[in-house]
Design goal:
heterodimer; A: 433 residues; alpha+beta; Cytochrome Bc1 Complex, Chain A, domain 1; 2 domains; 5-stranded mixed beta sheet; B: 420 residues; 15 helices; 14 strands; globular
Chain lengths: 433, 420
């Protein structure tokens, strides 16, 4: 498998991966901003507003009709948070020109559409008002998925007072501070000063696509961009925490959602011991042979789901589970015990071997998924160290038991966040972590 | 001309095998499916003098139990040793066991075939899994979307129908599951002639065929008679409303088709005529969607869906909205307009192209492709016939089908928020 080839031009970086593997071709645009409390809410609305009208497309319906006729091409807006960056995205996926017959080049048409919505949006008062309401719904509807909601709350609790704790969609109460005029100003400011990364994956001629993108985008960027600014990204500052805390939010649920977060003691995506951290996290949870699954689910039947994950850009490891409220105490003890076991090196050779094999499988599977390839590359952009899946495949196989123990011993602080109905509990202050 | 991957089909030792080649992919995705699911409940099973009534949720319960070996250990590590992952899921009509791997394909396939064809369990394992499934049921009862959807099915098929109960069953129905009814259920449905194997990946079909040829599968030849007790469709009320701790109301509505008389060969076309029709009137480019979106009544989560099967078929639409009543009003007006003025050609073409795009999209994910191929295969249909059908259908066929569907009685299921 080949890697992304990168072409840079001013604030623009184009990452191209030509491959005959897929039926669909992807062109994805990513704009990187520093998380900022003042603009986080406004910025989060912008990708969606871009799809509501531009120079060539009067409104979303005319845009959508054009896309439908290109064999159901998709153009989707996205907002992500990675490290201390808020990332605004537009992703187009469309059938490969080698699979369907079309009178014009589908790739050229898609590039033209992207350029139109990205550089000539109308920001009409009507559509902005509408998107404000949609954004309101987007934020409150996150409450409907209790698992992701409780995780977000836990992560913002761990990073309280830091930029990272800002929610990627912003705040409900800030939506009405924005008008079509101020949002348009914000849009101009963002497009003039932010690094722009473009990914192209599919059965394409790299040079043709890059030339076409530069031709279309450069003149628009030059029109907007007067200053010759540096477009280098600052990597996030790793989380350092020492205190333990505990939050309980009462909610009418039949299950209790348990979230536990740890700082990784400064080990992040760009660190040399990142592969050891990946292994440590997966020995703990995420595989059916992982310690949490084996004990909490298989041995004691206390939970249907239990996982352990990493936010390696900021340096957080978090555990999630959903349990019966009256088993909180027992579940807590089991979870904490598993982490202590790893710190002490109570890990069998089989556990390490299965975890390495499982991870290799995951990296190989990720090589099949365009979304994963782009996401992983973005992690590299944000952290300042681009890693490839192939590199990770080799790196995890070389990790030793001692390296796992040493990375586990760096785990620090501990935040417990409970969502649900705890019921009658003897003691509110668990000796947890 | 649309190019799709090639398929190799063969029957070896009573097992139907389909191998779909995807050049360049690392993942090999294998599915062994058993043609039984949540609709196969409330049945009377009999072998010799043994008679058992099987409770709701049994197919899913058995899926959990299948993971255990004779010694009480589970099967997971056997796959993990080559980095493979095993998963399983149960739907209305399928129980499937899937393996995703990148290495040691023959060994993983052999393990998959052997464990699904061997039942071993104890009372201790059943009781332990019952606890786990109880957690799973509780998690899904906290999910509003799930509740709204099953309420709609209750309105289509009546309270007692097996389609109306979640696939997992209920806490009280799974309490009735025991060694005897699990074993009988296994014997009734887990037979190679009632299974299908699908393998997708960059792999030579002969490799797969060879493994199946050489696996020893012992099956109890004693037959089990299956008798339906009471699964008749009753008519539910047109409106149903519940309250849950959610941020905004959610609504679901749809129509049940009576397609008992529909021939198998026509089912696929019937399915896609309806889908193109629903996309045309309620997809993201439709007037209805755009108006509701601009009126701030719906968001991007708004959806339409259509399920067609030889024994059931229904549409479901829905989403989150502050005013479910206004959505239904607008919907009724749209339906009336189609009855009065019919569909227009330009919109028909864009809907048809869009559905072609949605089908093409599946080819880039082995697991999604497999699930779709399986869903059709189990009803004797071929997923790869869809694109040729979509290339030939015309507007009149879509219009007739849509009008036929929309003359059925409309059912609405609403969920309103309560304070939490």
């Amino acid at each position: 498998m080949k890697q992304f080839q990168t072409f840079e031009k001013g604030p623009m970086a184009i990452h191209v991966l030509p491959t005959k593997k897929y039926v669909l071709t992807t062109i994805a645009v990513r704009v990187y901003l520093d998380l900022n409390e003042e603009i986080v809410t406004g910025a989060a609305m912008i990708p969606h507003i871009l799809l509501q009208g531009s120079n060539s497309y009067l409104n979303n319906q005319s845009l959508q009709l054009t896309l439908d006729r290109l064999y159901g091409a998709k153009l989707q807006a996205s907002i992500e948070k990675k490290g201390e960056k808020q990332i605004l995205g537009l992703s187009a996926t469309f059938p490969n020109p080698f699979n369907v017959y079309h009178e014009k080049s589908v790739v050229s048409e898609i590039i033209a559409i992207l350029s139109d919505v990205l550089f000539t949006p109308t920001f009409s008062a009507n559509s902005v008002e509408n998107e404000k309401q949609q954004h309101f719904n987007r934020i409150i509807n996150r409450l409907n998925n209790k698992v992701t909601y409780s995780l977000e709350r836990c992560l913002s609790k761990i990073t309280e007072g830091q930029l990272y704790s800002l929610p990627h969609l912003g705040y409900l109460q800030d939506i009405d501070r924005w008008t079509s005029k101020t949002l348009f100003e914000l849009y101009n400011q963002i497009i003039q000063s932010s690094p722009l990364h473009i990914y192209v994956v599919g059965n394409i001629e790299p040079n043709c696509v890059v030339d076409e993108l530069i031709l279309r985008f450069e003149k628009e960027i030059n029109k907007l961009n007067e200053s010759n600014k540096e477009f280098k990204l600052e990597p996030p500052s790793p989380l350092r925490i020492s205190e333990k805390n505990h939050t309980y939010e009462k909610f009418s649920l039949s299950q209790l959602l348990v979230n536990v977060g740890y700082g990784t003691g400064g080990v992040v995506f760009s660190s040399d011991d990142y592969p050891a951290l990946v292994l440590c996290n997966r020995i703990l949870g995420g595989f059916p042979h992982s310690k949490l699954f084996v004990n909490l689910r298989k041995e004691y039947g206390l939970a249907y789901f239990v996982s352990s994950s990493l936010d390696a850009l900021k340096g957080i490891m978090y555990i999630q589970s959903s349990i019966k409220p009256d088993t909180l105490e027992k579940s807590n003890i089991i979870i904490t015990e598993q982490i202590e076991l790893i710190k002490k090196g109570v890990i069998s050779e089989e556990e390490i071997e299965l975890t390495i094999k499982g991870l290799c499988n995951i990296y190989k599977l990720s090589l099949d998924s365009v979304a994963s390839l782009i996401d992983f590359h973005q992690n590299g952009i944000v952290s300042g160290r681009v890693r490839t899946m192939e590199e990770m495949l080799l790196a995890v196989q070389k990790v030793t038991l001692d390296e796992i123990i040493s990375v586990a011993q760096k785990l620090e602080g501990c935040t417990l966040y409970l969502l649900g109905n705890k019921g009658e509990s003897k003691d509110d202050n668990y000796t947890f972590c | 001309m649309i190019i799709t991957p090639s398929v190799n089909s063969i029957n070896i030792n009573n097992l139907d095998i389909n191998v779909i080649q995807k050049t360049g992919f690392n993942e090999v995705y294998m599915m062994l499916l058993v043609k039984c699911g949540s609709i196969n409940s409330d049945l009377q099973l009999q072998t010799g003098s043994k008679v058992q009534i099987v409770p709701k949720g049994i197919a899913h319960f058995l899926e959990h139990i299948m993971f255990y070996k004779k010694d009480g250990e589970d099967i997971l590590n056997q796959f993990a040793s080559s980095g493979a992952s095993i998963n399983a899921f149960t739907t209305f009509d399928i129980t499937s066991y899937t393996v995703s791997c990148t290495e040691e394909i023959p060994r993983n396939l052999k393990t998959l075939l052997e464990f699904v064809n061997n039942l071993s369990f104890s009372k201790k394992i059943i009781d332990k899994e019952r606890k786990v499934i109880e957690q799973e049921i509780r998690m899904s009862t906290d999910n509003a979307r799930n509740n709204g959807f099953f309420n709609l099915l209750k309105q289509f098929y009546g309270e007692r129908h097996s389609l109306s109960t979640p696939v997992l069953g209920t806490i009280s129905s799974i309490a009735q599951i025991n060694e005897t009814n699990l074993e009988l259920f296994y014997k009734a449905y887990y037979r190679t002639e009632n299974m299908k194997l699908i393998v997708i990946g960059d792999i030579e079909p002969e490799v797969i065929f060879n493994v199946v040829q050489n696996v020893n599968i012992h099956q109890d030849k004693k037959s089990v008679t299956i008798k339906e007790i009471d699964n008749k469709t009753t008519i539910g009320s047109p409106f149903l409303e519940i309250k849950m701790p959610i941020s905004q109301p959610q609504l679901f509505w749809g129509y049940r088709d009576s397609i008992e008389s529909l021939m198998k060969s026509k089912l696929l076309k019937h399915d896609y005529l309806t889908k193109v029709g629903l996309e045309l009137i309620s997809g993201k480019s439709s007037l209805l969607y755009q108006n509701l979106y601009n009126e701030k009544l719906i968001g991007k989560d708004f959806f339409w869906s259509y399920e067609a099967n030889p024994s059931y078929a229904y549409s479901a639409l829905g989403g989150v909205s502050k005013r479910p009543d206004l959505i239904i009003n607008e919907w009724d007006k749209t339906v009336q307009k189609i009855k009065d003025y019919g569909l227009d050609e330009l919109n028909f073409q864009r809907a048809r192209y869009k559905i072609i795009g949605r089908v093409l999209e599946l080819f880039d994910s082995p697991s999604k492709l497999c699930r779709n191929v399986a869903g059709y295969l189990v009803n004797g249909l071929d997923f790869f016939d869809i694109i040729p059908i979509l290339e030939t259908i015309n507007i009149n066929e879509v219009q007739n089908r849509l009008l036929e569907h929309l003359t059925e009685e409309k059912k609405c299921s609403f969920i309103y928020p309560i304070k939490h």
